[in-house]
Amino acid sequence: MRSNASFRAFSDAELSFVQGFKTGEVDVKGGATVLSDGHDSAHLFTILDGWAVRVKHLDDGRRQIINFAFPGDFLGLQASLFDRMEHSVEALTDMRLCMFERPRLWELFQSSPSLGFDLTWLASREELILSHHLVNVGRRTARERIAYVILLLFERARVTGLAAEKAFEIPITQEDVADLMGLSVVHTNKVLRQMHHDGLLTWTRSKIIIKNQDALSDIAGPIAESRDVLRPFI
Amino acid sequence: MRSNASFRAFSDAELSFVQGFKTGEVDVKGGATVLSDGHDSAHLFTILDGWAVRVKHLDDGRRQIINFAFPGDFLGLQASLFDRMEHSVEALTDMRLCMFERPRLWELFQSSPSLGFDLTWLASREELILSHHLVNVGRRTARERIAYVILLLFERARVTGLAAEKAFEIPITQEDVADLMGLSVVHTNKVLRQMHHDGLLTWTRSKIIIKNQDALSDIAGPIAESRDVLRPFI
DNA sequence: CGACTTGTTGATGTACATCAAGGTACGTGG
DNA sequence: CCACGTACCTTGATGTACATCAACAAGTCG
Question: Of all residues in chain A, what percent are helix, strand and coil, respectively (each to 5)?
Answer without folding.
Answer: 45, 25, 30
